[in-house]
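User: Can you recover a sequence for this backbone? Please restate the input before giving your answer.

Assistant: Of course. Working from this structure:
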């Protein structure tokens, strides 16, 4: 487990300042990709009538997820404490398998790289990967 350095945190905050305004679209793309590439994740959304990319529920929930990522960027110094209520929600109410947080983090990275190829440098890639891994660990906190 690699922790976020002060430099990583600076890189994440600077990158997110550039891309965060597109959070809703990025979230929709990342969630759509997750549902297509990892179809087993559809079980968590079986109550939706339409799971296709671009559908209203995928857009709405993708935006919700990425707004949570934006919130996490602001809580980067204490992800576990800052995301405790989300961890409880996912563990006790939604009962999401925490392995899915890592899968979704991967999809976020792919979408960021596709949409921001000039800004998604190797150093940004490393910092965002470490941040999203830390975010996934924070969300899995209540599973322990």
């Amino acid at each position: 487990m690699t922790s976020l350095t002060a430099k990583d945190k600076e890189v994440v905050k600077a990158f997110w300042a550039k891309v965060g305004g597109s959070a809703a679209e990025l979230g929709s793309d990342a969630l759509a990709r997750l549902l297509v590439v990892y179809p087993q994740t559809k079980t968590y959304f079986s109550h939706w009538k339409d799971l296709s990319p671009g559908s209203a529920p995928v857009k709405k929930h993708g935006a919700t997820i990425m707004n949570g990522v934006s919130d996490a960027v602001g809580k980067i110094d204490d992800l576990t404490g800052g995301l405790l209520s989300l961890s409880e929600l996912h563990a006790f109410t939604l009962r999401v398998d925490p392995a899915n947080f890592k899968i979704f983090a991967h999809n976020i990275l792919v979408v960021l790289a596709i949409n921001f190829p000039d800004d998604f440098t190797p150093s940004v890639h490393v910092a965002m990967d470490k941040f999203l891994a830390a975010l996934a660990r924070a969300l899995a906190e209540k599973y322990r």
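That completes the design. The chain has seven helices and no strands.
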